[in-house]
Specification:
The chain has 65 residues and is α+β, with helices and mostly antiparallel strands. The protein has a single domain, classed as Alpha-Beta Plaits (2-Layer Sandwich). It has two helices and four strands; from the N terminus they run βαββαβ. The strands form two sheets. A two-stranded antiparallel ribbon has the order 1-4. The protein is globular and about 30 Å long. The N and C termini lie close together (6 Å). It binds iron/sulfur cluster. Iron/sulfur cluster binds next to helix 1. The site of iron/sulfur cluster (SF4) has 14 residues, from helix 1. Its cofactor is [3Fe-4S] cluster.
Length: 65
């Protein structure tokens, strides 16, 4: 899995950080930061949940290895 996020469309909702804090954080302005673009298997369910929950669809997951 490869994780990317579009900071231009992120609306600082923080949902991804709550759902997958090992993988997402926010900068000083609140926009999403991807801490771990290739998360381990143990984090992937939370990352998928975070991507589904993002209100602006700003998180993209490439499931191909
Ligand atoms: S859930 Fe989406 S809009 Fe909210 S902080 Fe994360 S990337 Fe941004």
């Amino acid at each position: 899995m490869r994780v990317t996020a579009n900071r231009d469309t992120c609306t600082v909702s923080s949902l991804c950080v709550y759902r997958a804090p090992d993988v997402f954080d926010q900068d000083d302005d609140g926009h999403v930061l991807v801490l771990d673009p290739e998360p381990p298997e143990s984090s992937r369910a939370a990352v998928r949940d975070a991507a589904r929950s993002c209100p602006t669809r700003s998180i993209h997951l490439d499931e191909e290895e």
